[in-house]
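Exercise: predict the structure of this protein bound to manganese (II) ion.
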Amino acid sequence: MSTGPMPTPDGPPIEIGESRSADVGGLPVRRALPRHGRRTVGAWCFADHMGPSSGDGPALNIGPHPHVGLQTVTWLFEGEVLHRDSLGSEQPIRPGQLNLMTAGHGVSHSEETTGGSGARAHGVQLWVAQPSTTRDGAATFEHHTQLPVAELRGCRITIMVGSLVGERSPARADTDHLGAELALQRGTTTIEIDPGHEHALVVTTGLVRIGTSTIAPGNLAYIALGRDELHLAVDGPSTALLLGGSPFPEPITMWWNYVARSTNEITDAHADWTARSGRYGTVASSLDPIDVGPPPWARSPNP
Ligand code: MN
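Solution:
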């Protein structure tokens, strides 16, 4: 469900959409992307906001599973998650650190909260669609503990990927996209943005207003091309992610953990995972690998 575009005095309309509820590895999540009518924002094609889980809630436990054609971006506000992948990486992820895995032709990974059940978890997992130039390439992994920070009046911005307000992240970016955490205090903030980018604002704590629109956790505000400033207002401490980029030039096909260009590619990618063909390597995790049935178009018809 989404409200129609609302005209705002200082630029193109802002579209507010509702996230869908989902469950990932035992944790409730708000899925802001993809959603009906809005598959991508720049190269961003998936956005899950998980938690905050209460200390009594379930821990995050996601066993080994494959990815193709995308980058996973894991970003935490609270808690700690252990990332393991088929490249041999074993990396704790802590708040304010960028965990970036590039799948290319194939990789697998597992994610689990450390400290067992009762550990708090609050964060996001985002996917970036890879362009045709790199999507069949080798898998890679990066973890960044030092990221550029910009202090604006009323807002502290951590640049996760791409560039914003004159700061550039060292993280790998295969397309012209950006991601940043906005930690807003009381009052108003103006952020210069690239009018050649479309943007999305995902609020994770508190409430953020853009013009007459109020954005809460569970909403994604879509900001169309053509704005050069974003005016944000908050009544108290609030946190949001700003995602953006040049509109992704190619239509993508997504199913389960794969981003591709055709259903045939996805059928093949999934057959390789199901057969443990070696395409995705192995992950040194005690969790069981995750298997799901074939994609709907590859299922045999009911008798
Ligand atoms: Mn994953």
